[in-house]
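--- STAGE predict ---
source: upstream dedup step, 1 unique chain passed
mode: sequence only
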Amino acid sequence: MKTLRRLLLTLLLALALPTLAAAQVDINHADAKTLAESLNGIGLVKAEAIVAYRNANGPFRNVEDLAKVKGIGAKTIDANRDAIVIVTAPANPHNAASNDRPYAAQ
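--- STAGE serialize ---
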């Protein structure tokens, strides 16, 4: 009976892990709280450093650019490579929507 429970628990964990690993975060637009919650080995202090670096230097062009942030090294980047996405387009939905407004004749 114990073996069956262990097998069932192992199976459930194996099915749940890909779901947890599938969550991705855009490091060019996410806030510090989201970064800290989404990335392994990144707490709020490092997440705030990522946001500060991004605000001072512009968007990240690739995942490896995270190494320019103090306290983030290759191991942290490698551990999170699958969870990180780079989106360079503006995240402001109002910019995209402004082109959809109907023309108002004057």
